[in-house]
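Example S7 (structure tokens).
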């Protein structure tokens, strides 16, 4: 289906077939496939002529969700450039650091960030800026406008969140992304007339692949939402525009279970990614809605999707499902030997979706790319049916009295306590017993729960050595812009609580 040399060719082929069809709904406006392509082509021409963009040039893309993000993305690729999507929640010094690392001296942004762009130029005087409000309108797109790029040529640099140190640029080729889009398409079935609801920021690899490339290379329509901060308005848009596929993060699906949200929605299926989906949320969702909520798993280094619960089932609570078509997943020990069913080890991944490496960091890439396999750093196991379960990050694993303890197991058990909405567990150092789990939670009504009651509750579900002795209630768990819990901040808070 996606037998193209590069993403631009794939998009051009789709435009040829669906020129007048609506590609994006945006704030009451319908943008056709043809118009998106025309805008992208005009921008590609300008980038080559005025800004010297050529094959291999890195270009920063610093925008909130809007149709121009999409036309800019394809315009950069059509000119032969490498897209560097930037987290628009970052501050100017952070943006400048990423641009410097990517060696990008040109940025596409919006007037909203004009002052911030000026501050970035204070750090990087050679940086040129073009605002979306000044983009050329249209052009007659000819095939010759699309720069010849092969499947192994770099297309995108996605910067990791950098919670454990300096952010690394994940280098994804045209082939990496095309392979992942193909795998997602094969897993979901015929989606060419679906309506994808795009909530999360497009700079994130999950939305870039599943919310942008998958629908727009398949002939589907994107219902583009400007902000996730107003769930009630999002529900109105889903009803009004008849959205059918919703990829989002667990806390949004928790919001959908609120009694104020109608149970009758036009959705066909929902996909949960970017963070673990609590079993309690899945169970509430299943009781309320007739359409499925499918948990998947991925990481930027895999373009990003690795696995998904099958659309037609069976669906297993707590599982991230089966590997996508064309993707292999092993569970390995420290010697890189395969582990038996049910034993916990590191998830290793192989497929055309696995990254080319880290931008300018071959030594870092060599640590995770070995003999054609990507070592994810995530720990988990497979059941007898091949379904995969995540137990936590290797670096988050606790060693309690010499025994491995996985935070997610404690988090799931604690989530079953009545009134607890969300949980997160981190390790703290104990001079006598080594690491010990420290549990944070969010509760209905915002009241503190008795620690002894929580301990007694968990002892009925977990081995004693796994049960936290320390608990702290928060109004909300700290998260980054894509919904991942910031466990580094929680460890700092836990340490401060013990001082």
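Recovered sequence:
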């Amino acid at each position: 289906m996606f037998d193209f040399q590069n993403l631009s060719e794939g998009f051009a082929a789709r435009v040829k077939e669906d020129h007048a069809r609506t590609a994006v709904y945006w704030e009451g406006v319908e943008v056709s496939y043809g118009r998106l392509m025309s805008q992208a082509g005009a921008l590609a021409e300008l980038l080559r002529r005025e800004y010297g963009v050529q094959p291999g040039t890195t270009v920063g893309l610093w925008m909130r969700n809007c149709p121009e993000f999409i036309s800019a993305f394809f315009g950069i690729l059509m000119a032969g450039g490498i897209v560097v999507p930037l987290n628009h929640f970052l501050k100017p010094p952070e943006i400048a650091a990423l641009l410097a690392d990517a060696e990008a001296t040109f940025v596409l942004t919006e007037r909203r960030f004009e002052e911030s762009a000026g501050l970035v130029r204070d750090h990087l005087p050679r940086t040129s800026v073009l605002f979306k409000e000044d983009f050329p309108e249209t052009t007659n797109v000819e095939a010759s406008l699309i720069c010849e790029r092969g499947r192994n040529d770099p297309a995108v640099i996605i910067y990791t969140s950098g919670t454990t140190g300096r952010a690394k640029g994940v280098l994804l080729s045209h082939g990496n992304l095309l392979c992942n889009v193909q795998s997602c398409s094969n897993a979901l079935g015929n989606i060419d007339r679906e309506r994808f609801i795009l909530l999360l920021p497009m700079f994130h690899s999950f939305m870039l692949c599943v919310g942008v490339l998958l629908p727009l290379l398949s002939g589907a329509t994107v219902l583009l939402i400007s902000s996730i901060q107003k769930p009630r308005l999002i529900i109105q848009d889903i009803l009004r525009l008849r959205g059918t596929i919703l990829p989002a993060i667990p806390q949004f699906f928790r919001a959908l279970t609120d009694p104020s949200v109608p149970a009758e929605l036009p959705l066909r299926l929902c996909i949960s990614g970017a963070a673990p989906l609590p079993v309690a949320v899945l169970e509430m969702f299943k009781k309320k809605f007739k359409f499925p909520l499918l948990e998947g798993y991925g990481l930027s280094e895999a373009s990003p999707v690795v696995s998904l619960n099958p659309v037609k089932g069976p669906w297993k609570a707590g599982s991230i499902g089966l590997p996508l078509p064309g993707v292999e997943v092993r569970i390995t020990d420290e010697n890189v030997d395969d582990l038996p069913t049910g034993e916990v080890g590191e998830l290793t991944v192989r497929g055309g979706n696995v990254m080319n490496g880290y931008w300018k960091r071959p030594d870092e890439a060599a640590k995770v790319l070995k003999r054609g396999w990507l070592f994810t750093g995530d720990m988990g196991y497979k059941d007898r049916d091949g379904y995969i379960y995540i137990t936590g990050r290797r670096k988050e694993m606790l060693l309690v009295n010499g025994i491995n303890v996985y935070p997610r197991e404690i988090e799931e058990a604690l989530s079953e306590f009545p009134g607890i909405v969300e949980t997160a567990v981190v390790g703290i150092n104990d001079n006598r017993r080594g690491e010990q789990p420290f549990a944070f939670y969010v509760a209905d009504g915002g009241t503190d729960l008795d620690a002894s009651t929580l301990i007694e509750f968990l002892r009925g579900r977990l081995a004693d050595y796994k049960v936290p002795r320390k608990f702290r209630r928060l109004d909300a768990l700290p998260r980054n812009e894509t919904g991942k819990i910031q466990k580094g901040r929680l460890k700092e808070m836990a340490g401060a609580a013990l001082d």
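Notes on this example. DSSP finds 14 helices and 26 strands in the chain.
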